[in-house]
Design goal:
Number of helices: 12
Largest sheet: none
Order of helices and strands: HHHHHHHHHHHH
Helix content: over 70%
CATH architecture of the largest domain: Up-down Bundle
Radius of gyration: 24 Å
Structural class: mainly alpha
Shape: globular
Strand content: under 5%
Number of domains: 2
Number of strands: 0
CATH topology of the largest domain: Four Helix Bundle (Hemerythrin (Met), subunit A)
């Protein structure tokens, strides 16, 4: 009996507690989503130009890659997402929206495809936000949202003799510049070293700085033309890199 007890104790010491299931590495999930999201952005670009058939090719790739994400991560989320009660539901919702977008794009209905796909950007952002995760896309989202508010001055220029209106414009310019700089500083190495991205950020930040000149010189024409040019850069930031 003593020998049996000794053997059991010895085995327990070597074997230790039963191993726990390991969660998926967060970087594997992020990389998989980043790749799928690239096809998503490309599809949106083509849908915005009305080219639903070409968009369908990108959506086919996204559908394949998102199915792989669901298969690998739905039941084994990275640790940071493990307590999210809607984790599986969120992944499945994106898969359904992708499939619906693909079907309508194949049927050459760009508007319907955009309605199915449009919310995916926000769904992913909210998934990260409620789990305390921040990545490059979040900085781009903030930059885009800030510029959308700034672009309102394109349609409704301020009264340059109103300190209140000018201060509002100054505040929004500063916020937009801040998030553009954060996007530049937090871009993944491959994007940060991309010549097109470098040019885009340099041009955008230069244009944002020109708005201060328009304010100082009280030039509505310069403000409007600068915002018009920035609008294109703002879309490209998301569609090509965000």
């Amino acid at each position: 009996m003593l020998r049996l007890i000794f053997t059991l104790v010895l085995c327990a010491a070597f074997l230790g507690p039963a191993p726990k299931a390991r969660s998926a590495p967060i970087h594997d999930f992020n990389n998989a989503v980043f790749t799928a999201y690239g096809h998503y952005r490309e599809a949106l670009f083509y849908l915005q130009t009305g080219n639903a058939q070409v968009a369908s090719f990108e959506l086919e790739e996204m559908a394949v890659r998102w199915r792989a994400i669901v298969e690998r991560f739905a039941k084994s989320p990275p640790g940071v997402f493990s307590a999210d009660p809607t984790w599986q539901e969120t992944l499945m919702d994106i898969e359904k929206r992708t499939a619906a977008g693909l079907e309508t794009a194949i049927n050459n209905d760009a508007e319907a495809a955009k309605k199915h796909l449009g919310p995916i950007r926000k769904i992913l952002s909210e998934l990260r936000h409620r789990n305390g995760v921040i990545n490059f896309s979040d900085y781009v989202d903030k930059a885009n949202a800030a510029f959308d508010e700034l672009f309102e001055f394109r349609r409704n220029p301020p009264d340059f003799n109103s300190l209140e209106q000018l201060n509002k414009l100054r505040r929004i310019v500063a916020i937009t510049t801040h998030f553009y700089e954060l996007s530049q500083d937090n871009a993944p190495t491959a994007i940060r070293n991309n010549p097109e991205f470098k040019r885009l950020m340099e041009t955008s930040l230069y244009s944002l700085n020109r708005i201060w000149v328009a304010i100082d010189e009280k030039r509505e024409d310069l403000l409007i033309s600068t915002l018009r040019g920035l609008s294109s850069s703002n879309r490209i930031l998301f569609l090509r890199f965000g």
